[in-house]
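Q: My labmate handed me this sequence with no annotations at all. I'd like to see what the chain might look like in three dimensions before we decide whether it's worth expressing. Could you predict it?
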Amino acid sequence: MKYDDYSQYLSPVLVKATNLVAKEAYGCYITTVEGEKYLDFVQGIAVNALGHSHPKIVDAVKKQVEKLTTASFNLVNYEPTLKFSKRLASLTPGDLKVSFFSNGGAEAIDGAIKLARVATGRQGIIAFKGSFHGRTIGASSVTGSSAKYKKGYDPLMPGVNFTSYPYCFRCEYNKKNDDCELECTKELDDIFNYIISPDQVAAIIMEPIQGEGGYIVPPKNFVLKIREICNEYGILLIFDEIQSGYGRTGKFFASEHFDIVPDIMTLGKAIGGGFPMSAIISTKCLMDKWPVGTHGTTFGGHPVIAAAANAVLDAFEEENIIKNCNEIGSYLKDKLYEFKSKYDVIGDVRGLGLMIGIEFVCKDGRANAKARDEIIKYCIDKKLLMLGCGKSTLRFCTPLNVSKEDVDKSLEIIEMGLKTL
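A: Here is what I predict for the chain of 421 residues:
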């Protein structure tokens, strides 16, 4: 079976990174219909926190399918979904204990915006340059990582304004850590003074670590300042933890690195163990302001996926997943710093846990997307699947239970590519 024989039946709007046709996948590896085996460091773009076909997830799904597939969560309650909602509440920070389950990240973002607007009675939303929140009309409206995601779709959702995210490697204000005065947060003063009054802003939505924008980690004092501004003006803070949550950064939620509890949090990707699931999580006080019937879902809270989600939490508890994430993440980052010292084409290494990226640069420091893309192509040719993000960043989306041996194998391929480059 070849992809080209079927491509005419699929919309070309979806970007295809490869033409590989996968047949099966286990752990870190995908096998194609031709029998070729690839080390997968994309993992559904951080979806498979436990790798492909983890035995606990497979077993849980099989057992649930044999009992009940679906009957609509607004008609009956599902035992695995109820159990999962309680377990999730035991992990979420602060008073974020009430969940609304949906299918994908963008859907959760749309719901979070609706909740913020109805709970505050305000319409304005402030988002960040470099952000990525999804591709629905609502999620596209608050996405600022590329103009291409909005091209041809205007008018999008009104009431959205953008401010700068602290991309310290390429600071817009040419500041260094020792002389930074958080000039980027002062842009909010201009927005409040010239564009929208703060008492008309429902929410500020941000990724605590930007994903698609380039795996960018903001300074802690920046995040604290955003929380302070929200508190001052009664603005809700939405954290999009769809990629950064669920252990990816070495803590269960990235917000824990900043000692911040948002008012609303969105989860997705890893939450369902490879199955489509997302969640909007907030406080009982805010959720009680969401009028009954003004939001809904057909497949949200699906019992089979909830069974998988429970199995994911079982594995986290029983297999020291976050411990492995921190140990292997530290090891990987150290090795990448060694690459940076040896190869001038690498300008920056950044990230937390196993949410790590390396940025490729030209000799004059400009972003070098060509070099990054050549490395990705080289890796694929050598049976290693990698993806980029930002303008010129190579990102690692390994499973959180990845082994040192598989990391070493990937590093060997990448270094051969760097030498070739």
